[in-house]
Write a structure and sequence with these properties.
The protein has seven helices and eight strands. The protein has a five-stranded antiparallel β-sheet. A three-stranded antiparallel β-sheet has the order 6-8-7, with helices on one face. Helix 1 runs antiparallel to helix 2 and helix 6 crosses helix 7.
Length: 273
């Protein structure tokens, strides 16, 4: 019993003597959390004000927060007079183990950093590569989220994107709409152009200026029809509206003017033996 009492007395004495260091460590932790909150908030606000991509903003804010947390931890341990040399060695060994375990994902991480800072595309862009096409929802350090037109959220590793040929349709605000139009060989070419140009003039959401001119041109001689190319321009957000409206309007205008659209057909002759 006496030993227990002595142990308890010694523990109280040690705790009392160690109390200033413990209080200092708690104050450092509280200040570190406050500083992390303020710095991250200021960083996010500044990057948002400058129009930096949301995904890059999130990445930088996370990195800043983690860095401040690590510095706070080391400062608190130093205030408690605990040697951080062993902790640094532990973190180094843990980092090496994690890197070894994630060696197959390091390429994704490197690709993610490259994408975030070189910005071949940003959040909200419509991109197309390999068998994927959709709007970029979020760019993480290891993968990119893409929302397709069918409302499917596709998660693609960043290494796949960085090694593919990416077509970013949002880079330019004005995009070209093209409709391929087969016309019979016996049709009046000038009349066809006149009818289709009239449709283009009546179509809404098109951009008409000196650098974006409507055109209807005979592209090539097909096997069973003259192949025309109808080109016009609109804002990216109006692309599908214009495409579907234009396709239907051209068909209706050709029918109204007695111009048919040929289709593949097979003539069979039966000889009576």
């Amino acid at each position: 019993m006496e030993n227990v009492l002595n142990f308890w007395d010694n523990l109280k004495i040690n705790l009392i003597s160690y109390l200033p260091q413990l209080i200092s460590a708690l104050i450092i932790v509280a200040l570190g959390l406050l500083i992390a909150f303020v710095v991250v908030r200021i960083t996010r606000k500044a990057m948002t004000k400058k129009g930096v991509d949301l995904s890059l903003t999130d990445f930088v804010c996370k990195a800043v927060r983690i860095l401040i947390y690590i510095l706070t931890l080391f400062s608190a341990l130093s205030a408690m007079e605990i040697s951080i040399a062993g902790l640094v060695a532990f973190f180094s060994a843990a980092a090496a183990a994690i890197a070894l375990a994630l060696k197959d994902r390091l390429n994704d991480i490197a690709s993610g950093i490259v994408i975030l800072f070189t910005r071949p595309f940003v959040t909200g862009d419509f991109i197309e590569f390999d068998n994927y096409a959709g709007f970029v929802q979020k760019i993480d350090i290891m993968h990119t989220n893409i929302l397709t037109y069918s409302r499917t959220n596709v998660i693609v590793p960043n290494s796949v994107i960085s090694s593919s040929k990416v077509n970013n349709h949002t880079t330019e605000p004005i995009v070209r709409v093209q409709v391929d139009l087969p016309i019979p060989y016996d049709a009046d070419i000038d009349r066809v152009k006149e009818v289709v140009l009239g449709v283009l003039k009546a179509t809404e959401h098109l951009v008409h200026d000196e650098t974006h001119l409507d055109s209807v041109n005979l592209e090539k001689f097909g096997e069973s029809a003259l192949e025309f190319s109808v080109r016009c321009y609109c804002d990216f957000k109006d692309y599908w509206t214009v495409y579907y409206s234009l396709t239907q309007s051209i068909k209706e205008a050709l029918d109204k003017n007695g111009i048919t659209i040929p289709f593949n057909q097979l003539d069979v002759t039966i000889k009576n033996q």
